[in-house]
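Lab meeting minutes (informal)
Scribe: AK
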Amino acid sequence: MIIPFDLQTQAIASDGRKCIFSTVYVDIIEILTSPEEALIDPEMQGTIDMIAEGGSFSGDGVDEFLLDALKELQAWEFVQEVNDKDYTYWVLSPKGLLLKAEIK
């Protein structure tokens, strides 16, 4: 599978050590679940609040940041947006489920 984003990124800590951590895309993929699971268990429905909490994302503009990342993942066909009558949530597409299996 061709993945259009880096699974990990590097940063240099203030003490000069290199740190490797996953990107926001990987964090989102690991948090989300299949449409079937989301339908059975509403707590598994990937609302922006649930994704922010599950990935420990916080701060001003976090909703816009996560929405931008979700839109990119949607453009790459890894996630799907589900519009319920009351709210919107996100789930993994079949391609996203394959990616989640590969990164674990």
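Next up, CB showed the second protein from the same session:
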Amino acid sequence: MRKKFGKLKILMICFLSSLLIWILIAAFSIYQNQRNNKKVSSITQLSTKPPVDRLNRTYFAITKSNNWTESNDMNLFSYEAILANTTDKDLKDWCIKLKVPDETSVENTWDCTAYIDDNYLYIKADELVNEKLCSKSETHFGILLISENDLTFRSAIITGRLCKKLSSNTLFIFCCIMAVISLIAAIYGIVIQGIIKNQATLTKQRQEHDNQIIEQTMKTFSNFIDNKDTYTQGHSTRVAAYAREMAKRMGLDQQAQLTIYYAGLMHDIGKLTIADDVLNKTSRLSTEEWSLIQQHTTNGAMLLKNFTILPEINDAVLYHHERFDGTGYMNRMSGKDIPLVARIVGIADAYDAMNTNRCYRLKFSEERIISELDRCRGKQFDPDIVPYLISMIKDGTVYRL
């Protein structure tokens, strides 16, 4: 669950990072688009007649619709004009520049504005009518000119800003699509993360509840065990606490620590099969009685033979009296062949036996216990584990558990 949660978190970070990247690229494309839209383009047109090829271009055409002469011998010329934009961009702030002879003036206009400066006629958009010439569109307008001479327009210059729409900006559209996909993926990841987190919480709660049931059950059994001997009340609980602390200091994970704790609680369950008069005998045990005492390991393993969910507990019950040098009981195992849980519980069991009063002797002093642990390193106890218990004694941890 943790690995899955971690991988999902990495994926979410990737999606959110990609979302940010696509937004930045989209913002850059908007900036570039606006920058390009500010540029003024100039188109020189050699003819004022409508072109044959009218696709994807901006063109201007003007035709004389009427002309007459006034009483003052001034000629009036009426013109109809068209400005077409067949590109995929909008034409803004457009202006048309035409060469006119001297003594020419603007008498009237419609749907445009016009003025003459330095023998050039300037025609601009009417702000109220056709300020912007949209893509794939055209605008019609007219102008009335007065001139002493005949007017003929041979060429024209069109200026303006060709503004590309964001909707036609391929990079911007692609970034928007990718940003939306990244956002959807991130939202989906957040939802899934919430579901997984909720499941993990429920699982953890169930595990804690199950652990409480197991612990309470095992503590109940350990109380049954310890109550058979008035001198060993609380023994199993203390052994379990010492064993768990050693496992913690050895760097074992929490589940292993918990399992070793359970093993400590149950390690003497086989004593339930030993008669009270043998278990609590204050005088020297006979050979037969000592054999019965030794059998509490195998008897305990038989009692737990169907408890297979935590096999380490059975190992602790069966092997906690094995010795590192191979002289223990019941299987004469030695060294690392003895399961780790049994080696840890065995040391904790021996320490509590030395640190409590028994029916046949008083408890040992702290100095003597440490001396015994050092003396039995590599003999009775695993030499690699003994230092952890000694450190617990010296720093007072054993007295706080």
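CB comment: The chain is about 45% helix and 20% strand.
No objections, moving on.
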